[in-house]
Amino acid sequence: MPDEARVPTVIGAARGAGTGDVMDGLMQPRPLTIAHILERAERLYAHKQVTTVGAERVTYGEVAHNTRRLGTALDSLDVPVGARVATFAANTRRHLELYLAVPATKRVLHSINIRLSAEHLEYIVNHAEDDVIFVDRELLPRIWPSADRLPKVRHWVVLPDGSDTAIPADPRILDYDELIEGVEPFAGSFEDTFTLADENLASGLCYTSGTTGRPKGVLYSHRSTVLHCLGTLAAGFIGLCESDVVMPIVPMFHANAWGLPYGAMMTGASLVLPGLSSNPAHLLGLMAAERVTVAGAVPTVWTSMAPKLRAHDLSATRFLLGGGSAVAPALSETYRAAIGVPITHSWGMTEISPVGVIGGTRTQHRDATAEEQVAVRAAQGQPLPLVNVRIVDVETGQELPRDGDAVGEVQVAGPWVAGGYFRVDGGDSFTADGWLRTGDLATIDASGYLRIVDRVKDLIKSGGEWISSVELEGVISSHPDVVEVAVIARPDPRWMERPVAYVVLRDGATTTADELLRHITPMVAKWWLPDDVVFMPTLPKTGTGKLSKSALRDSTRIA
Ligand code: AMP
């Protein structure tokens, strides 16, 4: 263990005694830690199951045992306390063991999005200064070519996943199962190694795409993660509980799989971890076979599963979460008609751990017409307990009324909301009074329901993943014939949004769309390539001569 066991002591004296003085309470100052989530599952729910790739079944007891061995193994690799331990992995039980062992031993879990371009990937690994990378065997070819440009990474640990992907002969590469095989599991209480101050230690790191510039790191703490976890357990919202069977289809590298893995373990729900599968029949088959009660996915995945719903017995399902992009009311209603369960909005951001707001009706809507209820469900919903949400005028920064009409930028404050970014200036992402600016535009009604109507941030969300229009514009304008370019989102039935580039060429140039796409192909991830390149004589401008994307959207009828 990196630290000596230190059990927090109870403070014996209260601050202030006289009338009019503030007074401290006398409750135990126990820290909120991920170690508690692990040890609670181990003590109370050791028999509960995790079903993982290849129909493998393990218990929480076995996961905890491996977690304890992994803690020792990280020590033996001399991974220091506070070091970033990266994962490049699908939803599997080994990834779950990393979710637990890394923070329980006071290291920081950096889950990497496997869909990043090599350039972004190398940037974030170097920026995070990852010490070790745990990578699924099947995914090794996506990241290993960057290995020599990642000088701080001392160890590469391959997670067996049933694939037979070739493993390069390199002394830095280790095998996960061999690493933890036979090592002495940590026998003490991880939880007791934490002091009250330690609850603020960093536990996890996720990078999110900014409007401009580099991806930015959101650094979670034990405290923020545990409170967010309790948020996912709050009844009336997601309300995870022991009888649930929880299937995060949303990847564990995508904003902590929306807190579902920690939430399930905290409450003793069974977990189903479907690997990287996006095959609708496979996912539905798994939901039916495992009697899944709660599942979470981006709308693109729910859309792909919709046509096959009736072919599967989903009678156990009680709650489906849709987030990352707006869930179309028609999609939600398709699920409600087919299986009796709509898709409930989960709105949030990587910066909000990520869940801030959950949709659905409440008692005041019981007598509403079916149509009115559909409209309520179409809203993003109400903030979770402890989360504060407001809308402000984008120009003046003045808070706007909660009247369901005024549209303003959504700002959020709460104990699991980021207050800054890892090793970079937060710039204008935070207000002077410390609220997070989300870049989303919404109304809030008198009952506190948030309804997202648009986005001010210059980003495109395709299949739940960001594409930076600013970055695409940068690479397109590196072509010598391009004078001006604007990239905007086009609504797409499958991916929700796809990029389209509007380009002004220099006089006399004859460059074609294909030539432009070929020019940028080596510079961006393949799925970033615009679906269309439209040549224009000029692009619309604002009164001050700035490119007006809203006018472009209007003139091209892209809402
Ligand atoms: P990310 O940090 O990748 O999780 O992206 C967060 C952004 O995704 C938000 O600021 C929204 O623009 C969008 N988003 C997430 N959830 C929803 C939702 N339920 N409805 C509409 N937009 C959403």
Could you write a compact summary of the structure shown?
The protein is of the alpha/beta class and 559 residues long. The chain has helices at residues 34-44, 60-76, 93-104, 118-128, 140-143, 176-180, 222-233, 260-267, 280-289, 299-305, 329-339, 370-378, 469-476, 513-520, 549-555, and strands at residues 49-52, 56-59, 84-88, 108-111, 130-136, 155-159, 173-175, 202-208, 216-221, 245-248, 270-272, 294-297, 319-323, 343-348, 355-358, 382-383, 388-392, 408-413, 436-444, 450-455, 459-462, 465-468, 482-492, 496-505, 532-535.
General description of the model:
The protein is an alpha/beta fold and 559 residues long. Among the domains are: 29-243, Rossmann fold; 459-558, ANL, C-terminal domain (GMP Synthetase, Chain A, domain 3, 2-Layer Sandwich), CATH 3.30.300. It contains 15 helices and 25 strands. It has helices at residues 34-44, 60-76, 93-104, 118-128, 140-143, 176-180, 222-233, 260-267, 280-289, 299-305, 329-339, 370-378, 469-476, 513-520, 549-555; strands at residues 49-52, 56-59, 84-88, 108-111, 130-136, 155-159, 173-175, 202-208, 216-221, 245-248, 270-272, 294-297, 319-323, 343-348, 355-358, 382-383, 388-392, 408-413, 436-444, 450-455, 459-462, 465-468, 482-492, 496-505, 532-535. A hairpin with a 7-residue loop joins strand 8 (202-208) and strand 9 (216-221). It is globular and about 75 Å long. Mean pLDDT is 93; it is low at 1-5 and 7-12.
